[in-house]
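tool=predict chain=A
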Amino acid sequence: MKKQSRTLNHLAVLIPTLLMMYTCQAMISPSNLHPLILVPGNGGNQLEARLTSAYEPPSLFCNRWYPICKNKDGWFRLWFDPSVLLAPFTKCFAHCMTLYYDPQIDDYHNAPGVQTRVPRFGSTQSLLYLDPHLKEITGYMSPLVGSLEEIGYENGKTLFGAPYDFRYGLAAEGHPTQVGSKYLEDLKALIENASSSNGGKPVILVSHSLGGLFVLQLLNRNPLSWRQSFVKHFIAISAPWGGTVEEMLTFASGYSLGVPLVEPLLVRGEQRSSESNLWLMPNPNMFGRERALVITPNDNYTAYDIPEFLNDIGFPQGVYPYKARILPLMDRNQLAAPGVPISCVIGSGVRTPETLFYGPNGFDEQPEIVYGDGDGTVNMASLLGLESLWSDFKNQTLRVIKIGGASHTQILKDEGALSEIVREISSINSQLSFEK
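tool=predict ok
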């Protein structure tokens, strides 16, 4: 009887508490929502370009036929352009997308004569579809935005987008990153303005993939007082905290991202030139020294052997930027806990490249792949990287939400995954009733 009485007493306390939490969550009005900013992943927003008189096309075909469409001022959609599916246009596209590292200025820049811009910063519009004329096949954050609108969020008022030129990345202290640093400044200003226009409420940051790395850097590059004043919560979806083995495949042999008709070798040079791709190489602190990630007849490469790997695949010009600019970003101190509550939403149970086997014909052929756990793109060691790095941090709130069977990008479209994400956002908003 005593045990039963204690159980009834516990229920008597628990049930009203649960009802109160549910009621508070259900009663949250749009005016009480924390402003929310979406930060996309690599390739997750539209990118526009314009060619000046200084541009030298790689072929007569490109000179005559590319781009197919442009506006009266010469601007055209560089990403995503469906003409990339056709081999002659693939070469034109890749040439315009290629970045160049200049050792004299220690920074990256576009090809001569290529100007690029990111449309509609601050809005979610360029995150919804990579090509608004092909909504069915280029949809990206449209389902997530729709789900957020259903609970009261409104674009430009409580809901904002932070697109960026995803080819560029960031670099360690002492190395300039004109484009990446400007993006962090713009994102910081957007956070402050979103908060100010919503009665001073701190914002919820929701990132996907590479966007999580940018957000974490932004947080750690600003004072704790600023973070606690302007950031309510950080939700990182599919964040590759420690890079991916798939990135080594991209650098070695090119990767078509599953897009039909695209020959990987035609885009390999452009992909190698991307500063952000170099940032996504496997982090030694998370993948370790023992695991061979790439195996060839002559050499094996772990996450500690990336410089040798870059040299051996025929990309020696990537060695210095990697060692000087990127590798320090992978240090534990650069991935420090920011003191802002973080939720990691990740997919699991999806076959993910874990080891690449190359034969005697070298890196110009696609490898045999051994698969492990992850979200199909990011390995589990990387998705859970912050758990291991921050195990000793007592003042950092970190919650991991695993969604079985959700792939890297499908997690933004799957109904079950979207429900989990929106539930987490609703829970954060419900805290307004208890926390001021």
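Residues 1-27, 432-436 have pLDDT under 50 and may be disordered. The two ends are 42 Å apart (CA to CA).
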